[in-house]
Design brief:
With 310 residues, the protein is α/β, with parallel strands linked by helices. The protein contains eleven helices and twelve strands. α7 packs parallel to α8, α9 crosses α11 and α10 runs antiparallel to α11. The strands form two sheets. It has an eight-stranded mixed β-sheet with strand order 3-2-1-4-10-6-11-9. A four-stranded mixed β-sheet has the order 5-12-7-8. The N and C termini lie far apart (54 Å). It has two domains: 211 residues, Spore Coat Polysaccharide Biosynthesis Protein SpsA, Chain A; 89 residues, no CATH class. β7 and β8 form a beta hairpin.
Length: 310
């Protein structure tokens, strides 16, 4: 399976890039290619990538314009197009890490010719590489509906860098594009995992380490209103996708409405009510009685949200 895997890194920040590349250089199997797509960064990323010349099969490309600030999914797409003849693509990041056995486990994994999505289990690390959350392991095979259900029941944790996609299908169908790329990873996995499911690769030292840091977009309070607009679009997209493919969500309608309320971002109690009302009107698949129930969930959730800031 020599060099059938492309690890693509849309790069902008220098903070952890060297650690990310070091984790790739330390793989016990080096049969993969690395593509760095420099998003017109103001930092000298090439001086970091040059340290791995001759160690990794690495291609560095600097784009002349910054795209990630306005169209992050577009940046993902143009980075994937840097790939050559590899059959599989992992959209990694410039601050996460891989344990040393990931690629070896991939190289020995029996891949069915119809499978389109592979997966590594993950743990979450802090800015000093300490594991701060050991995440639940995925089942060996997981269908799209069950993935959605377990993820939003908080029985699984999912990020983009843990997935490997069949490049041919990814290029054909593309990423699901939302503002800020918020929920784009989840929607893309749901789409590409249909109908063959997510197949998890296991092995010794074969986890992806996702970094929670101050630089993550999820921690920026200024973006919460935009993220809520995406939440509405995402749940509308999910409902439409599942309906079009005759997929039954293994989640009761009652719990689905509650799940959407709990997914809403907020800055204060007034904004939470306002965002809840916008969501109740924006969700195309719920009836008027369900809108009333939805707002009841908003007011039910409000005291717990207030406790979170005390």
């Amino acid at each position: 399976m020599q060099n059938s895997l492309a690890i693509v890194i849309p790069a902008f920040k220098p903070d952890y890039l060297e650690k990310a590349l070091s984790s790739l250089a330390c793989q016990t199997c080096l049969d993969f290619s690395v593509y760095i797509g420099d998003d017109a960064s103001p930092y000298d990323l090439k001086c970091i990538t040059d340290k791995f010349s001759g160690i990794l099969n690495l291609t560095y490309h600097r784009f002349s314009e910054n795209m990630g600030a306005t169209n992050l999914v577009g940046q993902w797409e143009r980075c994937v197009k840097l790939c050559k003849d590899e059959k599989w693509v992992c959209l990694f990041s410039d601050d996460d890490m891989m344990e040393c056995g990931c690629i070896d486990a991939f190289s020995h994994f029996p891949i069915d010719s119809h499978v389109d999505v592979l997966h590594f289990d993950i743990d979450i690390i802090d800015e000093n590489d300490n594991i701060i959350q050991e995440c639940p392991k995925f089942p060996s095979v997981l269908d799209s509906g069950s993935f959605f259900n377990l993820l939003f029941r908080h029985q699984l944790v999912s990020r983009m860098p843990e997935f490997i996609f069949r490049k041919e299908r990814l290029l054909k169908e593309g990423f699901v594009s939302f503002d800020l790329a918020w929920r784009s990873d989840t929607a893309t996995v749901i789409k590409l995992a249909y109908p063959r499911g997510i197949h998890t690769i296991t092995g010794k030292d074969a986890k992806v380490l996702w970094r929670a840091s101050h630089a993550n977009i999820s921690g920026d309070p200024k973006l919460k209103e935009r993220k809520n607009k995406v939440n509405i679009k995402f749940f509308n997209w999910v409902h439409s996708f599942f309906a079009n493919h005759a997929i039954t969500i293994p989640m009761r309608r009652f719990y689905l409405l509650k799940t959407i309320v709990f997914a809403l971002e907020w800055n204060n109690w007034q904004s939470f009510i306002e965002e809840g009302w916008k969501a109740s009107k924006g969700l195309k698949f719920i009836s008027f009685p369900e809108r009333v129930l939805f707002m009841l969930f908003v007011f039910y959730r409000l005291p717990y949200r207030l406790k979170e800031i005390r």
